[in-house]
Fold these 4 entries.
Entry 1:
Amino acid sequence: MDAACLEGVVVAYPGGRTALAGLDLTVASGKVTVLLGPNGAGKSTAVGVLAGLIRPDAGHAEVLGGSPGRLDARRRLNVMVQDDGLPTGAHPAEIVRHVARLRGAPATARPLIEMLGLDQLGRTTIRRLSGGERRRVSLACALVGEPDVVILDEPTAGLDPRGRSIVWDAIAELRDRGRSVLLCTHLLDEAEALADDIAIIAGGRTRASGSLASLLPDGTERVTFDGPLHLEVAGLVQALPEGSRVEEVSPGRYRIDGDASPQILATVASWCAQHGVQPRNLSVGAESLSDAYWRLTEEPGAQP
Amino acid sequence: MIAQAAFELRLLMRNGEQLLLTLIIPVALLLGVTLVPAMPLSAPAGAERVPEALGGVLAVAIIASAFTSLAISVGFDRRSGALLMLATTPLSRSGILGARALATMGMVAIQVVLLVITAMALGWRPGAAAIALPAFALMGTAAFAALGFALGGAVRAEATLALANAIFLALVAVGGTTFPASALPGPLAALVSLLPSSGLADLLRWSTGAAGDASLALDVAVVILWGLAGTLVASRTFRWR
């Protein structure tokens, strides 16, 4: 059984903006599902629907075999939302202990307070914490109790490298213990490091979903390189074999369409040499997650 | 819900601005009203005036906690997402609001005790009518909490802050609290006596043993009707974000 799923979910906000336009999303049981998408794609709205905070205008939403937001779902599903909603006058460890008590599992607070180093923050109130410290408190609140499903909305936004590594470890540990995780992020390396499944959404719709490998469809090898933004590549196209195309697939990243061959690699290198362009990461390979992300989120209609 | 209420009361007791509003201002007001001769009360300044002053100031304290402080905290907790964060826990939505109301009642209990102690230090001795004081205080708290939820649950946080404080000041000054509505000029007196602040203060003044013009049935009706109106508005317009 899936831990949670959305089928054709539509959410319209007052004023006519459609946040979700028929979104499909599956959080498989015992796996880490990463939700990727540009700002405004509808990630946080999807989280709100699964947490039972936003009622869909159409479509079907299910959490642990029932409707989101019911008592059993609230007991077994923990959410870390972006606006953390922590009481600003409270102390870090005190809030974590309180949320653990609300979740009926007071004993789960202590290990998390220690793991996330919250006791070092002592009696500093939430409003005096740095953004990263505050994220750690919010994460601890999302992990207390023994949740079956954990939803984390950009848990590493604004964290330093050490903070990110702590969060990644916590997510890996959840998976090792058989929990289901939905992770919203903008960071493609985070997705590659943690995801069992990936869903890419844009404009309130699912653009692609499945395992990492399945999102990189054909496996055809192509020549790519990184260079200055918005190169004038008409000359390069002329130097290449008839019918070749050069595309800036993401800002400063160029891909030569057509079969990769040593000749094409050599042509690109010599054209770059003539034009004083350093072809960083000039390589032959299949599409990366980053390429897929840019392709899938820039299709017509992907932007709201 | 009780755990949440206790947690919120603990945070309230730590918040300096809230304590200024809910404890320090009422105690200062009680001293001021009792001791400053120019206040338009029926008894002369001093010990004789304490029953009248205490009744009015208790009403001010209840309005400060149940209306102003509650509306502001609800307004800001809506904006910060604190109410939504709680809504993702096993605490139900009615439990979230119930806990807030319960914490408010706890705060009012502390205010009543503090003000009664201050009044006794000024020479007040409770009479038989004081038995009704807790019931009137509870009724007033419920009615003003309903109005507080109605305001804080519908209006933007900054607007709630401004309105809740402005209404509080108006009710302290001319809402029939600090001094009875009957001290106001003719038509204004009749109008103000229909406000929940005046109704509650009249009831409390009666329970503290002040000689007054309290018509208990009318005052009870005024407070209950405002409470019902607040409940109705809040149940229709309350937004969680």
Note: Chain B has a mean pLDDT of 94.
Entry 2:
Amino acid sequence: MKTQGMTPAEVEAALARAGLEIPEREKPEIVGAAHFIEEMAVRLRRKRAMTAEPAHIFPPPGA
Amino acid sequence: MVPDFLTIAEAGALIAKRELSPVELTQSRLTRIERLDRQLHSFIRVLGEKALAAARSAEAEIIAGRSRGPLHGIPIGLKDIYETKGVPTTGHSKVMIDHVPREDATSVRRLSEAGAIVVGKLATHEFAFGGPSFDLPWPPARNPWDTNRFTGGSSSGTGAAVAAGLVLGGTGSDTGGSIRGPAAYCGLAGLKPSYGRISRAGILPLAFSLDHAGPMAWTAEDCAIMLQAMAGHDPADPASADRPVPDYRAALSGEAKGLRIGLIRHFFETDNPANEPTRQGIADAVKVFEDLGCSVRELRLSPLADWAACGIMMMLCEAYAIHEATLRERFADYGEAFRDRMSLAALISGSDYVQAMRLRRELVAELARAMSDLDLVITAAAPSEAPTFDAVSKFAIFERPSLTMPFNVTGSPAMSVCCGYTEAGLPLAFQLVGKPFDEPTVLKAAHAYEHATSWRAIRPRAPLP
């Protein structure tokens, strides 16, 4: 599956931006797993009508 | 002498006839825990004195003619994300090792009101997500069918404890398969009810919109008994459904004639290919249902990877929102499996989360359409028997699309049902899925299947003397 292909530096930058102090030993594994997220994101992004609603829309109290 | 293995229904009937004492039954489980749990690690906290006191109280009530029903005097265990008043509830994590709740979770209170005896708190993957892990305050639970093997997760301790006969039933939670996975690997019946059927109040959350509480026991009938106690509206849970609770046990006639079942074969043949024993087990189960008078036809849905992507992306985002601040402050206090998996959530955009929610609406509608002329669907609960611990990688949940996550996305009732054993004696399972709030039909079909086959007569032996 095609992905946007974040580079290891981009993944590390995103993790640092999130404020996570990840041990050096664990960084390569997390970077290596980033493609799973990119592949799943591709499956979510589809051509949809502008009005296609998400599932978490809720009626206001009293409706 | 109390038998090593009893179902809740069997023990409840004996207690009702005063042929079995709740105190003796509870003491026998405590003795069994003492003897076996050093190998299984299913409990992280045993509440011996408290359980015996509750058993004595139950016995006195029953002798006085005030029976509360089939759970009265039955020893159970609670996954350690269910809050218990005055008893630590840790999520199997250093992060909450000192957390002592002031109240019971609603479902715990209801089980206690039904007379269940809480014997202890059970192992889980860290916060129902990170595991199996060997770097947490307690070791991971081990599978009673082979202690070198994984129990499945995240309700790992419940799977092990019930399979080993340390308790007669237990609670699990299921955000992407955490009841059905351990039930499949440990040979149990495990029911994830409809979203909203059992209150989530007082249960440590993993992902709000996907979390389900539910029972794990040896049989469908036992799950029905536990569900009866746990189900019902709770204003403390904003997702709780305000609808009547049917008599679940009344649905268990032993018959399944006329039920219309859809077989989602592509989920376990091409999308996440199951091994041959699992495929054969499901094929044999389909034949059993046909012999029971059910009609079975094939059903094709969106690729399993779409369902899994939808659920996992929502789960990561919601869980990350819960743990974000603590991850920043105490990253090293989490186990490596939890923290490294959860770190991936930092790569997901807000737009991705909303797209997952849009896909969820589409997939919910898709399953509803597909089941418009069906009562149930059947598919695999797991792609194989329980793997060894060293075969479970840190990122395993991302490597192959989950067979159970689709029904967290839809909120449908879904149950893992044992359908035989490998040549090495390890349990196999299939998954039965019903329409929202139609737990009675799921339980009815599972119960009929169990009675048409002999699998429920087989209990784990090794390492049990």
Note: Chain A touches chain B at residues 6, 11, 14-15, 17-23, 26, 29-30, 33-34, 36-41, 43-46, 48, 52-56 (CB under 8 Å).
Entry 3:
Amino acid sequence: MKKPFLILALISIGLLTSCGPKIAKSKAYEGMYNEKPLSVLLMPPINRSTNVEAKQYFHSTLSKPIDNAGYYVISPFLSMAILKKESAYNSEMFLNSSLTKFRKIFGADIAVFTIINKWDKSALASNVKVDVDYIFKSTKTNEILYTRNAHITYDTSVGGGLIGMALSAVSTAITKYVDVARTCNEYTLKDLPAGKYSPKYLKDGKEIAGKKEFSKTF
Amino acid sequence: MKKILSVSLLTLMLCSCGGQKELYSWGNYDKTSYNYLKNADEDSQQELMKNYQEIINGPKKGKKNIPPGVCADYGYLLVKQGKVGKGKEMLKKEIALYPESKIFIDRILKMIDE
């Protein structure tokens, strides 16, 4: 009779302790709540990993989670074309420089940098391990308003089909690699304070923020 | 007892999900955007444009269902195909849906006219 309660108690403890040190979002991401950014410019990911393709996996799956969080992501393909035209496709150049020009040209409040530090594929363990930095910088103050470092291990032996991404023109291996990037982006950005178009806008400050640096296995 | 357990579990699951619903309908955007980014050929462009059309003309019209940037990216591809009139119309629709895009899109409209 007591067994179900025991299980429930264990699950609850598991859920609570996995949150780690409790810092409210309004404190962890203070700049986001102060500046209330809306327009987001995606900078092409900086790829420091050995996998050339990783850049595209991450780039193509970056806009959706930020849009879904309630922000305005500036047209990804159009802005990319303009960045290329202006020879500004290498985001590394702007990581530590003034971002005012992006405010002026794109109307961006925030520039989002992603740095893929690691993309290691293990055939034996059939998984992919990635290490990615996410840096949201204000184009007004150049301050970092949101940053997280994700260490994701993704099991490539299962899943893929679960999401229903039946890619006709793309092999199943590539489908899975897009899934790795999509999962990493979605999980890491789930912690974003809600943007203007979200029903939770300015109502989530008391929620507990996730860890800045975290590891997670999918 | 079983009932209590399942109800508790369900509540727990619902709470831990955070109840985040998607604000927009995306169709097959994950697939089509990746393909276009990777290949940028005629086929992948057609597929992506079809995806945009479906989002824009979808059953649930109105602001909340067309995600940011979709009208502008669709307009950009139309202009690239030489369909300048229709393309500009889409770019203007982006401004109408999302006024914060005006700075950038006005610049693009000016570039098209030059």
Note: Strands of chain A lie at 39-42, 46-47, 72-73, 110-122, 127-138, 144-155, 213-217.
Entry 4:
Amino acid sequence: MSEALLKLEGVHTHIGAYHILHGVDLVVPQGQLTMLLGRNGAGKTTTLRTIMGLWHASQGRITLAGQDITARQTPDIATSGVAYVPESMGIFSDLSVRENMLLAARGARTLDDIDTTRLEWIFGLFPAMKKFWNHPAGKLSGGQKQMLAVSRAIVEPRQLLLIDEPSKGLAPAIIQNMIEAFRQLKAAQTTILLVEQNFNFARQLGDSVAVMDDGRVVHSGSMAELAADESLQSRLLGLSLGAHQ
Amino acid sequence: MTSLKDMDWKPMALVPLLALAALPAVGSPSTWLTLTVAGLAMGMIVFIIASGLTLVFGLMDVLNFGHGVFIALGAFVATTVLASMGQYTTADSLWLNLLALLPAMLVAMAVAGALGLVFERFIIRPVYGMHLKQILITMGGMIIGEEMIKVIWGPEQIPLPLPEALRGAVLLGDAAVEKYRLVAVLVGAAVFAAMVWTLNRTKVGLLIRAGVQDREMVESLGYRIRRLFVGVFVAGSALAGLGGVMWGLYQQTVIPQMGAQVNVLIFIVIIIGGLGSTLGALIGALLVGLMANYTGFLVPKVALFSNIALMVAILLWRPQGVYPVTSR
Amino acid sequence: MLQRLLSKDLPRSPWLAVLLVVLFLGLAFAPFLFPGVKALNVAAKILIFVALVASFDLLLGYTGIVSFAHTMFFGIGAYGVAIALSSVEEASWGVLLLGVLCALAVSLLLSLLIGLFSLRVRAIFFAMITLAVASAFLTLASQLSDFTGGEDGLTFSVPELLSPGFELSEEPLALPWGEVNLNGKLLTYYLVFASVCAIFLTLLRIVNSPFGRVLQAIRENDFRAEALGYRTVVYRTLSNVLSASFATLAGCLLAIWLRYNGPDTSLSFEIMLDILLIVVIGGMGTLYGALVGSVLFVLAQSYLQDLLRLAGEAAEGIPLLPALLTPDRWLLWLGLLFVVSVYYFPTGIVGKLRERAVLAQLRRLK
């Protein structure tokens, strides 16, 4: 079992009067892809946002590579090597694809500073990025926007990727593109925490899995274990991995 | 920025449309030309002032009801600077005049910018996110500012005469076009060009454009957007100071209440333009400037109303202004 | 019975209750407690401000809307009466009433238009638009001099019963601390007093009704209110209209009292600031704050200017200080007080007193 890159211990999050996270304990092992599963409203997005510092934990501890980041501000967490792809994708529609990528490449002042091999690799994964390079991001299709959001997160190497429902609303062919991209990222030893509802997607990629319900992690273990146990699946998720497409 | 064929050109067409519509109403082409240049000049000056305000709002969701104080401060500082450079302003050489005008503008911008820094720290920062309090407190800030101007410079109006070489008019056919107004149009165009260049060709500009759309995402990409905001606020205040100098020279006189007076015009401009849009502010400002001058000539009593009517008409067409910034 | 009169909106703090009773009695018997023209003018001004600020509190404190057009409606009321009464030879009650009704009609129309048009947009747009409209109205009033008397304003006479010439008794009432003239001015004062009481109690009724509760819900979270099925635009517009109408009535009272009206008397920006200051210092969303705040503010404004003058004279010779301490710079100190209040006393005096009462109760429970 590889060591934990990200650890959440007893994290509570309040948003205004609402108590959303009730003591989340989560371990994200280094170099692996951890799936965060659960039904709607279980607190998955809130967990990601809390890690990213967009919402602050009212209680508990969050450690990244041994450092306590619970009270850190979002920009500092990002510069510690964390990339976040929100559910809404967060692309800047008035800016071109090129400008979106330039913004995400923090170290780069101009386009020439971006590592060309890396760019070529991204173009290989998502050819649409090259095709629409100078077009405003707002004109891209839903799937292409999602690809841009992921491309931004990987334009520079990062310690940890936090990704919220990347396959939502995407056509099956594009989902395959995504899966391939994540496979390649895994091969490059990137640590990923992925929130998903598409279990086929999850099963193909996940090394470990954590299931949330009512603001808590109710099960954690290896994906293989969960995939093999249908009764556990239906108990936790209400349906079996095999039946869901 | 969007490519030419994608661009929404309809709002830009409004400016020449208004100008052409006024031609038959005004009658004589030479008067029309004079009025149009006057309108464009006034519009450019208003744009200089409004551009900072609209960016501040778009970027940080802060509406500074006290923006007028930077305008007034800039103008008053200029009176002091120009008064001390008598021999430069009375000389009939354009270069010497500019040698006096330039420092006046720079000092005005510096002082207004410095006040902007203080304003942001003590008046605005404590009330981020609380719109109601922002409106109240920035108004309070403006009152204090206006009164302090009265304390320092006295409550009376002070003349701000144009330097010698910039006085008078140039004859274009039958039309008399004031020299200063041409200068104002040039300065305004230069400021606009500088803004467009910064927004589109620098990383800072990129950050501002992105931040106006989705502040959170910019932070998630690792940028300290608060620092950027302070910078934009200070720049906006400095621009307001510059606009104040130019407005003062346009009117040839400055009064402590000028901030509050111009404030209303600025708000109309940025509502027409769409909160957060630089191009929208330019179009709004030009429309307002032209409208004010045409109605000032044709039906003087309804000048301010005409601008409100213009605002209402535009809002009926596009309720969020001509170039609404895509929502977050 | 008192509970029903106050629509069950009680002070909820012993200190506040005492304060309110003192202020009420003070205003009710002002002509007799503080004889003299200046004191009576101050008292009348306080009363009118109470009505004006309380109607603004309905909009700002209870519905959460910032509108800079409040003085415009105040002015419409004042001009309505002024124009009506100055256009006739003999001032009569009928003409006065006509003026009031016309003013109310204009206010109703304008507030409806503004409300329906602007309330569909964001709060900040609304605030800016009302600022623009109010400015335009001010310019209009100064420019339509044939109609409104322009910069000089309109002077007129009021119905006989209310005019100072009308004497209830030949001899003034002699009290140990001064003489009280029993004339039309006294009657006018009580007309204003009774009207303001009626307005205030009506406002109390409105904010404590189901309608008022919906307004507060909208103020807190308009999305939620809309989701719960309340058409927020309707409620907001209604609040706007009610607030404007009461402001108009306050304006009518002002004109009746002063027998004069001009752009600076009712439409000036300074009055709008005064309203904002009073509502913030007194306490937003309390209505009683309007009473407490108005008294404090008007007293301060009337008598503190003298204090500033004295302080300015005492500071002769010190650089810059005399320029800061002159009564002309009254607005500077107002502005500072305003900014400080918004930060440190967001709930105002009434809010603070109520908080203390609650804390005291909690301590007693422990």
Note: Residues 1-81+158-245 of chain A form a domain with the Rossmann fold fold (CATH 3.40.50.300).
